[in-house]
Amino acid sequence: MAFVFTAFALFAVSSFAQSQSTPSPAGTDAFRSAPDTAAKTGAISGAVVDKDGAEIPNAAVVLTEGSFSLQSVSGGDGSFAFKDVPAGSFDLSVSASGFATQHQSGVLQPGRQEVIPPIQLVVATTVEVNVTQTREEIAEDQIHVEETQRIFGVVPNYYVSYVPDAAPLNTRQKFQLSWKFAVNPFAFGVSGVFAGIEQANNSFRGYGQGAQGYAKRFGATYADFVSGTFFGNAIFPALLKQDPRYFYKGTGSKKSRFLYAVANAVICKGDNGHWQPNYSSVLGSLAAGGLSNLYYPASSRNGVGLTFENTLIGIGGSAMSSVVEEFFSKKLTPHAHDPQAPLGTD
Questions:
Q1: Burial class (CB in 10 A: 0-12, 13-18, 19+), 126
Q2: Which residue in 156, 263, 268, 284 has the most C-beta neighbors within 10 A?
Q3: Residues 293-325: pLDDT tens digits?
Q4: CATH 2.60.40.10 residue ranges in the chain?
Q5: What is the CATH number that goes with domain 38-120?
Q6: What pLDDT does 197 receive?
Q7: Cβ contacts of residue 87 below 8 Å, gap of 6+?
Q8: Positive or negative: CA dihedral 130, 133, 134, 139
C-alpha cells in the first residue's frame, strides 16, 4: 500500500514538473497577439472661457482626428475631457451661443494626457442689417402724415408736403388721397354753405327755390369739388405721372419763396422728381368744367368760353392758394411735419 502511494506521488510530481517546464505553444501565441491599446491612445482635457477668463458652460466641443470624431459639452466650470483618443494630430472646434467659433490644433502623444490651455471665446461680431423700405412704403408713410394736416385743426391740408424730397405717389395712392379729401366732412360743410349763398342770391335760377332747389345747388357745388379733385389730383396725375402736391419751400428770401409759390400754379414735380408744366391741373379744370355742363341749368351754361375762363380763374386761385401755403398754412397746421425731424414726428 505504501509502495502504491509512493509511486502515485512520484508520478504526480513528475507530471507537474513537466507541465511547468514545457509551455503551451497556443498560450504563447495568444499572449503575443494581445494589442497594447494603452500605448496607442491618450486623453485630452481643457476648459472654455470668455475674454475675461470666466468659465463658459454648455459649450459644444468637437474633436476631430482624420475620420475619427468625438463630441462633448463643457461642464458648469467650463471644463471638458476626451478619453481613449487615438494618438496623432487633432483639431478642436469650440462653439457657444453668442460667441464666435474657435479652433485649436495639437498633437497627442501615445499614452499621454494632453491638457489644452484655456480656449477663449469672443463675442460674435454683430451683423448690422439695414431694412430698406420700398418707395411705395415710404410714400405711404408720408401720406399718413399728410392726412393729419389740418389748418386750425379743421381745414384739410392734405395736398402739401413739408418733405422736399418726398417719395412720388403711385396711382393707387393718388386716388386714395383724392378720395379721402373728397369725402372729408369739411367738404360737405363748405358745399352746404356755398349752396346756401347761391340760393339766397337765387343763382342758377333753373334750380328753383325751396328744399329741392337747395339740394340741387348743394349737389352741383359738391360735384364741382369732387370732379375737380379727381380730375386734377388723381386721374390726370396718374396718366401723366405728375405729383398733385405742393412742395413747401420754406427757405430763401421772401421774394424767391413768393415767385416759387406763384410758379407752382403752372408747374409741378413729376414722378421722376423733375419739374415740368402742370398739365394735370389745367386739363383737370377743363374736364371738370366740361362735366359741369351735364348738371347745371341750361340757362346757366355759357359754352366753351366760360369753361376756359373758369380754368384761367382756377389757375389764379391756385397761385393764391400756393402763396398761402408757403407763408401761412404751416404755422396754422398743428400736425405740419418739420422737414428736419424724422418721419412720423411733428
A1: exposed
A2: 284
A3: 888 888 777 667 667 777 787 788 889 999 999
A4: 38-120
A5: 2.60.40.10
A6: 96
A7: 40, 41, 42, 108, 109, 110, 111
A8: negative
What is the predicted pLDDT for the residue at 290? 86
Segments of the chain scoring below 50 in pLDDT: 1-35, 340, 342-346
Residue 169 to residue 174: CA distance in whole angstroms: 6
Query: For the segment 154-170, what is each residue's pLDDT rounded down to a tens digit?
Result: 999 999 999 988 999 99
